[in-house]
Amino acid sequence: MSPIKEVIINNKTNVNPIWIMRQAGRYLPEFREIRKKNTDFIKLCLNQNLSSEITLQPLKRFELDAAIIFSDILMLPYGLNQKVSFKKNFGPILGQLNLNEISKLDDVDFVERVYPVYKAIDLVSKNDLTKNKSTIGFVGAPWTLLVYMINQQSPKVKLKDNFFKDNFLINRTLVVLEKFLKIHIKNQIESGAEIIQIFDSWAGLLSENDLPNYVYIPTLNLVEYVKTLNTPVICFPRGIKNYKNYCEIVKPDAICIDYEIDPVQIEKEIKIPVQGGMSPKILLTSKENLKKEAKKYLDIFKDHPYIFNLGHGVLPETNPDMMDYLVKMVKDY
Ligand code: CP3
Question: Residue 174 is part of which domain span?
């Protein structure tokens, strides 16, 4: 069994698996080389040969325990026929959401639009570089996708004043999202993904009162679905304050934590396997500091099933040597 599954399924504490969110990305010169020639990000995600090659790039350099497929959570709205593009130094820009159109879309049309993602998973999971490692598939959580689809840009730029105005639109969109997220998850698993991670990057925007409607219930539905497919599911509700509540209600197989939450408190309160936590900014400091901070997480979780990762994606300005140092350090711990 792959080390990550040993942690999630068998609750092993004597293996220290590591993978890193955004491990395939702009901090790697070999990625930037491909990206330079492929200016349309969505098209790049839809090129199975290039996206599988990019997925494997970090595994050629570092002894990571997982390949996370090079794709994006916004491939889902793309598959639903909503326009998605990426503007440099700004982030994603989406076209107007058309409820009528997304409600009418059938499964076959959706699968056809995102099919290369599944082909890439198939290629990656069959490659020798992923032998005894986990191929991780992923989706955005319903809430985070709803945010992008209605807001049409990152809420980091600005959240529309009237975001919550149209209740009918919100509720109908959540229903459509649940249907197509299940299809997207099932196809990733059938193509070779052996773990699913659900990214809820904007869970932290909501107050405690709104979490049940937009985060807990829609995510629980997905988690229960992934479990019926005999596949472990990791949830990452970035920015929430009460991870304990989240775990008790949503019941993922493992929980990924962000860098704002106190890991000591998490270790005490949470019984399921934990992943992540360290701030990506630590990789921009010195090797001594990196060693100290990584050791802090490893020490805290030394008797707890733990998968090393960061508390958010690796930053583009990271020096690959620092990543190398981190992976070796975790392996030698
Ligand atoms: O982790 C991996 O290596 C796998 C690939 C992956 C990408 N995006 C590739 C990507 C994954 C798992 C994602 C998830 C994703 N995408 C999330 C959830 C995690 C998070 O970051 O909170 C979100 C919110 C998105 C939406 C998205 N995609 C944004 C906001 C951006 C622009 C911001 C940025 O970093 O430029 C993207 C683009 C994107 N997705 C890039 C990569 C490598 C950068 C593309 C580039 O310009 O080269």
Answer: 3-332
Q: Give the CATH number of the domain where residue 61 resides.
A: 3.20.20.210
With the most atoms of ligand 1 within 8 angstroms of its CB, the residue from 22, 188, 195 to mutate is 22
Q: Looking at ligand 1, which atom is closest to the CA of residue 58?
A: 3
**Is 34 within 8 Å of 51 (Cβ atoms)?**
no
Per-residue pLDDT of the chain (333 residues; tens, 9 = 90+): 999 999 999 999 999 999 999 999 999 999 999 999 999 999 999 999 999 999 999 999 999 999 999 999 999 999 999 999 999 889 999 999 999 999 999 999 999 999 999 999 999 999 999 999 999 999 999 999 999 999 999 999 888 989 999 999 999 999 999 999 999 999 999 999 999 999 999 999 999 999 999 999 999 999 999 999 999 999 999 999 999 999 999 999 999 999 999 999 999 999 999 999 999 999 999 999 999 999 999 999 999 999 999 999 999 999 999 999 999 999 999
Tokens of 167: 């209740």
Ligand 1 pocket at CB < 6 A: 21-26, 35, 41, 68, 70-74, 86, 91-92, 138, 154, 199, 201, 313
| Structural domains in the chain (count) | 1
* Distance in angstroms (rounded) separating the CA atoms of residues 173 and 150: 9
How many CB atoms sit inside 10 A of residue 14's CB?
Answer: 9
Q: CA 223, CA 232: separation in Å to the nearest integer? A: 9
Q: How far apart are CA 73 and CA 60, in angstroms?
A: 24
3-state secondary structure of 66: strand
Report how far ligand 1's centroid is from the alpha carbon of 67 (Å): 15
Closest protein CA for atom 17 of ligand 1? 73
Ligand 1 center from residue 176 Cα (angstroms): 23
